[in-house]
Amino acid sequence: MKKKINVMHLVGTMSLGGSSKLVKFDVENQNKDRFNMSICCLGDLGEYGEELLTKGYSVESLGIRNSWKSVIRNIFGLIKLFFYMRRKDIDVINSHLFVCGVIGRVFGYLLNVNGIIHTTHNIMYPRIEPFMDKMLQKISDAIIVDSSAVKNKLINAGQSPNNINIIYNGVDESELKIDLEVIDIRKRLDLSKDDIVIGNIANFQFYKGHDCLIEIFSKLAMKFDNIFLLLVGEGELENNLKSLAKKLNVQDKIYFLGKRKNIYPIIQAMDIMVHPSRWEGFGIILVEAMLCKVPVIASNRGGIPEVVKDEVTGFVFPFGDVDSFVNSISLLINDKKLINDFKIKGYKRAKEKFNIEKMILKYSKIYENFSKSKK
Q1: Given this model, what pLDDT does residue 125 score?
Q2: Does an H or E element contain 222, and which?
Q3: Residue 39, strand partner residues
């Protein structure tokens, strides 16, 4: 019998978000007879980490804090990580996002880990970080990106294309099965079936474009009395966005629903998902919307055009083109045949191109390829 391959994901936290969801899917769906999957969080476990722990998966928290006041604690946390990796006899380390990418690859190199892999999710970094990523590529066996747009951006920043692998994110469709006892979101918010509901699910970060979305919505509210906006997420910009909504006199039509783990009932409560992001490496929420048969209207930044097929599964426009967003949403509201066509084709595209089985297979092949000893 072959020795199981010990694969460790190194993440900042397993709190709700696209990168954490990807790790969760990978850990839950890899072949348990072939891989020992584990997760090490620099910070807190987060919601997904707690869930996986209760299911019996190996999830470790180092308690590292993003603060200079915790420097001693953080040093001990890094020492703990080093010996944790050595004790676990890691064959493959897969680091996620920039800080973990630095720590994971350096420690992997020092410990002579067979497979040193880094998955890039967000490349909206200051100038020094692309330079460091370029240097760290020299000790990386594989770089994983979730779109051609991200790969091209890394190449333009000076990285070699030789070991950059594109693996589109997949969604576990079984998670979209909604419990019949889940409270109907529209009823809970006192919205009728005839009301028009658009929405967005993303943390309140500048690059997500919520300010543009609220401007779009304010113009739609002048055309449709019964239109409402659902926003799911949290972040430091929340108060600014609420102030903008008040300034544009649409505060009574926007629901700030906070951070939610079970997002699928909320997606299904929407008629249209609107995602005018300034940058998006992939946008897994767009796939989830299409699987829920909700049409998507989004910006053309980053990998979004690789997910949403313009005029086939939704509409894609340049970021900041408010009028095009408003006109296309108005068109869908008034054209039931077109909106139904987008629903059918979007669901088919998500199911065929972005399914979990394809993603897991590609990750497992990379783990297999780089698990062999370098000695």
Answers
A1: 60
A2: helix 210-223
A3: 9, 59
pLDDT for residue 180: 41
Model confidence pLDDT, tens digit, residues 133-168: 889 999 999 999 999 999 998 998 889 999 999 999
Beta bridge partners of 145: 166
Instruction: State the pTM of this model.
Output: 0.90
Q: How many CA atoms lie within 13 A of 269 on its CB side?
A: 27
Same domain, 260 and 232: yes
| Same domain (yes/no): 156, 199 | no
**Structural domain that includes position 300:** 174-353
**Does 375 reside within a domain?**
no
Whether residue 13 lies inside any domain: the answer is: yes
Query: pLDDT tens across 10-57, in order?
Result: 999 999 888 899 999 999 999 999 999 999 999 999 999 999 999 999
Rounded to 5°, the CA angle 261-341-347 comes to 35
Rounded-to-integer distance, Cα 58 and Cα 36, Å = 9
The total domain count for the chain is 2
Strand pairing report for 142-145 and 164-166: parallel
Note whether residue 186 is domain-resident: yes
Q: Is residue 269 part of a domain?
A: yes
CATH number at residue 322: 3.40.50.2000
The Cα 285–Cα 275 span in angstroms is 9
> Same domain for 9 and 142?
yes
Same domain for 306 and 227?
yes
Across 99-124, b (16+ Cβ under 10 Å) vs e yields: bbbbbbbebbeebebbbbbbbbbbbe
Instruction: Name the residue with tokens 């409402």.
Output: 228
Per the CB < 8 A criterion, the answer to whether 141 and 104 are in contact is no
Residue 89: count other Cβ atoms within 10 Å of its Cβ: 11
